[in-house]
């Protein structure tokens, strides 16, 4: 059996899950605790990839990533490589469409935090950043776990956006969800079955681990 | 991989046999991706890194050539559509009757815009003047492979499939009727100018003209 | 220290206007009826509540001045604070809570020893009793060597014996700490025992006569004193 | 009423063993040091905690018997309960909270009037003071006409005057209610004033001698009684 | 322009959002508050549609909905209509793949509920069911709103599963996400753009409304 789609999917899901907090945590923190003009706009803008059909998003990204668009052209200048239909492109796309799935649960758990804890932190002299790392984060592990479940699951299963910006290039952008689709279409049921049979238990184990973390935290 | 071929979905059964032979002869590793001709064309226009494009029509390779995106196209196969079904009742007699049989609640056809085989099916139905009557029964697959999937799982009662799929293992499990009104599907191929592996691409195109390939194509009903 | 503030959301019917003269090493006990604004006053001093309008000064420093848009954030005020419903950090053990903002490690042990919670140091706050929690909160507030100690009914969850012990502790502490202590209590006896000054607050203002009206010690009305069974 | 239960998670060092003889209209005051298991006892009686092992009986009824796998759920015990940190339903107004499980509408107004929170009836619990909240909790517990009233330090958030008023209220109430009342307090004076029986509990057992050791009324040690400023 | 894909998408999203609580709320309640054997299995089973690539799920449903499978055959008996390739089929599919997106946020908000509230409810004599309606639900509106945002967004955007079971029938199963996909692949960028241009602001407005409800609750 061809392992590359499974490996690609795993790589994509892990990369996304690891990279996304860098963007999502500060955004969630801002949305939960700060008041600033244009907040509801930012909020809606971040949530957009969630409500947009993957094909619409994929279309938008396809245009942006193309060699004629600014992003695609700059990328080609910087890295000497075509962006669209590359693995980098699907990672980027995955980060973008997963952003709301990471921000929303994080934000919800930040907002649910007992406000007295933040009051305590400021009484004890902590700055907002210090309070974030020493008080908010450790008390919101549940929310973070929920966020990673969603993100991991999503990047493992995403199909529409990746099909649009990645095409289906073997070894580069043909992730498991696409490979399974094609295998089913080509009536190679045994291949489809084998890949699913591997994907499902692996996802399951990841899910169980995250659930365990989640429960320990409660 | 040493070569990346973008092929129209209908040619997939034949390609599955062609690739191992080519790999054995040249020692090159070939990857292939397939979907409808229109989708592949869209991806090529947007910069997809394919080497060879095996289309299911002549129009799109010609267009690529006109836009300076590929070398001169050549015809590599002529295919046909058939009406395929799991239900033996539907294979008795004329295809227009079969398509309008009471058992044929849902009939699958490929996207008429992107898939030349879907287009051919539409043309045939229009010629037979049953296109309008068929509308309520039609179910659309994204490419000819999905059409066969719909038909072979029984989700659709019949499907306008590529003749080549009749010769597959699954295809043997059902029956089919021919569609005389349907035009031959003339399929052209070309090497892309942006091909990352142009040498291997040239070798592959050369290989397509060999008797071995001709034998495989004949086996799958291509002319 | 003076506080003159209106905060309509909480106190629609009156505004707070209190002059507190609290020297280092001395304790001012704030007493007053429920709803008098005692907690609000403490929260304003701590910067946990922003007045709609008003001025709060602490010695020479202006902490809040709404007309000059000045607001010193809580974390810069150098406070120790214990609320009645103070909550410890649930993700940390008792020891980690006390050490959270501590300046010296040895002080952490010293304080836990002093407040009788040293043996509980590795438990989580959810697994100790209300009184134990309150003592831990006390340690946490003191461990960072605050320059002003605010206490809002900090002994309410304690049994008489522990409370008395803690009161003695606090009485000893307040001179050794050498910082002003503001202590809200509804227990007049406690106020009298601990306070260098007693400040009765009614409807946001100092009201000395309230104190006199209260001075009917409850224990003397012992019309029914059943024997222990 | 008798309770004999071990619950290792909370009380690893001892087991509760208390015989409470509480007649309708009478109040048993439970006093004891911090960590004695008073709250645990109340939670066991209320069915909020399951003993690892033990028997709890109420009159003739067996509420818990671990050997016979019997456990009467909380909702079927017909209780009124007020905790020190009782929380009202945050989504309901004070009035809706009191009326939540009330049997008669007029009783709701009557109770709110009696406890001095009628004017706050349309506020949310988050917008009233600690003492006001405690009074509302009292009304909520009484509004359903419970057949046993459990009070775990219900007056701790109140100022002296309000507390005294409420104590009087409770003293009047207890005869008119005609149900047994179990009242945990750390205030010995309160226990003496309200209790028909005072039950000192130490490490889960009735310990009459503890009471005697405590009997050094705190107010008499008035070594410093500063005048009101 | 052809409006039917947009209308279909709206119909599908609304139907799913309205119908899903019926199944999701009891499941979330059970998972949050009850202990029973096989709970973690049920949990994992419900989460499955979230980790499965939509194409795997789609193929499974295609087979189950077909006239040769038990479900598809019974449906045809009951309603006298083919299930697969019908609007009912995509609604059913949408309900199934949205279940975890509804259950997870509901459950999280149920679990975060101050346990004293449930204790109060039982002290005041409420049964578990009564407590659910009178105490749990009104205090978890935030979680419910979060759940509906996710579900609405998902059913509006779902692509992979519907691509498999829908058959792209105009006016019946060709929802906006598929219509846009086909338009882009056919290089009809203007059509794709026009549909997206309508879908985006509509989704935006729905988002803002749900956010408003969410905020009022806090
Ligand atoms: N979060 C709030 N929002 C609006 N009003 C509030 C809020 N908290 C308290 N109040 C109101 O403000 C007034 C003063 O409350 P405060 O908590 O300062 O009283 P207190 O003197 O501490 O009383 P107690 O002795 O009962 O604790 C009360 O009338 C109360 O109803
Ligand atoms: N949730 C819990 N888990 C484990 N142990 C607990 C928990 N809550 C309390 N304890 C422990 O159980 C013992 C008895 O606690 P309990 O709350 O019953 O005491 P109490 O008599 O009410 O004390 P206080 O007067 O301080 O409220 C204490 O030693 C405490 O540390
Ligand atoms: O082989 Mo096609 O391009 O799907 O008709
Ligand atoms: Mg107060
Ligand atoms: Mg207690």
TrEMBL record, chains A, E:
GO terms for molecular function: molybdate ion transmembrane transporter activity. Keywords: Cell membrane, Membrane, Molybdenum, Transmembrane, Transmembrane helix, Transport. The chain crosses the membrane at residues 12-34, 41-63, 83-103, 131-153, 192-210. The keyword Cell membrane applies. Gene3D superfamilies: MetI-like. PROSITE patterns: ABC_TM1. One of its GO terms (cellular component) is plasma membrane. It is a multi-pass membrane protein. Part of the binding-protein-dependent transport system for molybdenum; probably responsible for the translocation of the substrate across the membrane. This is Molybdenum transport system permease.
UniProtKB/TrEMBL annotation, chains C, D:
It comes from the Bacteria. InterPro entries: AAA+_ATPase, ABC_SmlMolc_Importer, ABC_transporter-like_ATP-bd, ABC_transporter-like_CS, P-loop_NTPase. The keyword Transport applies. GO terms for molecular function: ATP binding; ATP hydrolysis activity. Gene3D superfamilies: P-loop containing nucleotide triphosphate hydrolases. Keywords: ATP-binding, Nucleotide-binding, Transport. Residues 2-228 form the ABC transporter domain. Transmembrane segments: none annotated. The keyword Transmembrane does not apply. This is Molybdate transport system ATP-binding protein. It comes from Paucidesulfovibrio gracilis DSM 16080. The lineage of its organism: Bacteria, Pseudomonadati, Thermodesulfobacteriota, Desulfovibrionia, Desulfovibrionales.
């Amino acid at each position: 059996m061809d392992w590359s789609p499974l490996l690609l999917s795993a790589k994509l899901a892990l990369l996304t899950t690891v990279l996304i907090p860098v963007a999502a945590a500060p955004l969630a923190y801002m949305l939960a605790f700060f008041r600033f003009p244009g907040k509801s706009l930012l909020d809606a803008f971040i949530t957009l990839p969630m409500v947009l059909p993957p094909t619409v998003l994929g279309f938008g990204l396809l245009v942006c990533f193309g060699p004629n668009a600014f992003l695609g052209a700059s990328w080609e200048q910087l890295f000497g490589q075509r962006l669209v239909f590359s693995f980098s492109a699907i990672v980027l796309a995955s980060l973008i469409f997963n952003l709301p799935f990471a921000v929303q649960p994080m934000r919800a758990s930040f907002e649910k935090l007992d406000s007295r804890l933040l009051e305590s932190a400021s009484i004890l002299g902590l700055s907002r950043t210090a309070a974030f790392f020493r008080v908010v984060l450790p008390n919101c592990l549940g929310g973070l776990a929920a966020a990673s479940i969603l993100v991991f699951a999503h990047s493992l299963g995403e199909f529409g956006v990746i099909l649009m910006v990645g095409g289906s290039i073997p070894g580069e952008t043909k992730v498991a969800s696409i490979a399974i689709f094609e295998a089913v279409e080509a009536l190679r049921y045994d291949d489809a079955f084998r890949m699913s049979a591997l994907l499902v238990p692996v996802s399951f184990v990841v899910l169980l681990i995250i659930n365990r973390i989640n429960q320990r935290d409660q | 991989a040493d070569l990346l071929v973008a092929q129209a979905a209908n040619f997939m059964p034949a390609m599955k046999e062609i690739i191992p032979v080519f790999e054995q002869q040249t020692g090159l590793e070939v990857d292939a991706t397939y979907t409808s001709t229109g989708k592949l064309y869209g991806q090529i226009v947007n910069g997809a890194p394919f080497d060879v494009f095996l289309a299911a029509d002549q129009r799109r390779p010609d267009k690529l050539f006109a836009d300076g995106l590929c070398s001169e196209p050549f015809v590599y196969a002529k295919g046909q559509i058939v009406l395929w079904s799991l239900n033996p009742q539907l294979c008795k007699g004329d295809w227009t009757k079969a398509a309008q049989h009471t058992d044929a609640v849902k009939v699958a056809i490929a996207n008429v815009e992107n898939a030349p085989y879907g287009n051919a099916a539409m043309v045939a139905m229009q010629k037979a003047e049953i296109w309008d009557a068929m509308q309520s029964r039609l179910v659309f697959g994204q490419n000819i492979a999905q059409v066969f999937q719909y038909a072979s799982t029984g989700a659709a009662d019949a499907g306008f499939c590529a003749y080549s799929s009749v010769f597959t293992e699954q295809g043997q499990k059902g029956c089919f009727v021919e569609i005389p009104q349907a035009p031959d599907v003339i399929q052209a191929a070309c090497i892309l100018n942006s091909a990352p592996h142009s040498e291997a691409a040239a070798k592959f195109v050369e290989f397509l003209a060999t008797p071995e390939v001709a034998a495989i194509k004949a086996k799958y009903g291509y002319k | 220290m003076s506080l003159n503030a209106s905060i309509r959301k909480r106190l629609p019917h009156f505004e707070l206007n209190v002059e507190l003269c609290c020297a280092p090493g001395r304790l001012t006990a704030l007493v007053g009826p429920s709803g008098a604004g005692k907690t609000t006053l403490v929260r304003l001093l701590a910067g946990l509540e922003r007045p709609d309008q008003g001025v709060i000064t602490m010695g020479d420093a202006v902490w809040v001045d709404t007309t000059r848009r000045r607001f010193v954030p809580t974390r810069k005020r150098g406070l120790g604070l214990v609320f009645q419903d103070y909550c410890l950090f649930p993700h940390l053990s008792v020891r980690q809570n006390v050490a959270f903002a501590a300046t010296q490690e040895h002080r952490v042990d010293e304080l836990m020893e002093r407040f009788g919670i040293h043996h509980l140091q590795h438990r989580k706050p959810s697994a100790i009793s209300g009184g134990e929690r309150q003592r831990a909160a006390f340690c946490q507030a003191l461990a960072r060597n605050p320059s002003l100690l605010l206490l809002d009914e900090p002994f309410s969850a304690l049994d008489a014996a522990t409370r008395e012990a803690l009161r003695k502790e606090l009485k000893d502490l307040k001179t050794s700490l050498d910082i002003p202590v503001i202590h809200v209590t509804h227990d007049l006896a406690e106020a009298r025992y601990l306070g260098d000054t007693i400040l009765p607050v009614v409807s946001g203002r100092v009201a000395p006569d309230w104190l006199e009206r209260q001075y009917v010690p409850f224990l003397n009305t012992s019309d029914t004193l059943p024997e222990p069974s």
